[in-house]
Amino acid sequence: MNANVERTTIRKVYLRLLPLLFVSYFVCYLDRINVGFAALTMNKDLGFTATVFALGATAFFWGYCLFEIPSNIVLEKIGARVWIARIMITWGLFSCATAFVTGAISFATIRFFLGVCEAGFFPGMNSTSPIGSRRAIADGWSGGS
């Protein structure tokens, strides 16, 4: 009886949580590659050279890498629910702020802070999974034990 209740509960959690996780990861991926598509017209409009654009695009990963571990420490201290909400809100705000870029410095700054905001997203979303191992997730979907 307990195994049946557990399996039903895990399946319900998967059906409610995994679509959100999938959409969040997809939006994260779109956000990262979107700057490349924006470069097609943005470089000409703002007068960026390839070097200036590359510096700004790379600034994202500097912020992400520098703040990944501190973000994970805070995630453990305050919990995934609050921390993921913070990540999503600040990530959205800085994504919107990208519309106000006027030059190379503002582009690099916004991209850096976008990376800072997004740091901890992947581990945070993984920590919301009810069971941490891939095998348990696969078994949950296939009905195995």
Averaged pLDDT: 83
Taking Cα atoms only, what radius of gyration do you get, to the nearest Å? 19 Å
The end-to-end distance, rounded to whole angstroms, is 14 Å
Number of helices: 6
Helices and strands, in order, run as HHHHHH
> What sort of overall outline do the alpha carbons produce when their principal axes are compared?
elongated
What structural class do the secondary elements suggest?
Answer: mainly alpha
* Tally of DSSP β-strands: 0
Strand content: under 5%
Reported for the largest beta sheet, the result is: none
Helix content class = over 70%
Low-confidence stretches: none
List its salient traits.
mainly alpha, 85% helix, 145 residues, 6 helices
Summarize the structure.
Helices cover about 85% and strands about 0% of the residues. It contains six helices and no strands. The radius of gyration is 19 Å and the shape is elongated.
Summarize the structure in words.
The chain is mainly alpha-helical. The longest helix is centred in the first third of the chain and has 45 residues, at 2-46. The chain has 6 helices and no strands.
How are the SSEs placed, and which strands pair?
Layout: H1 2-46, H2 50-78, H3 80-97, H4 104-118, H5 121-127, H6 134-142
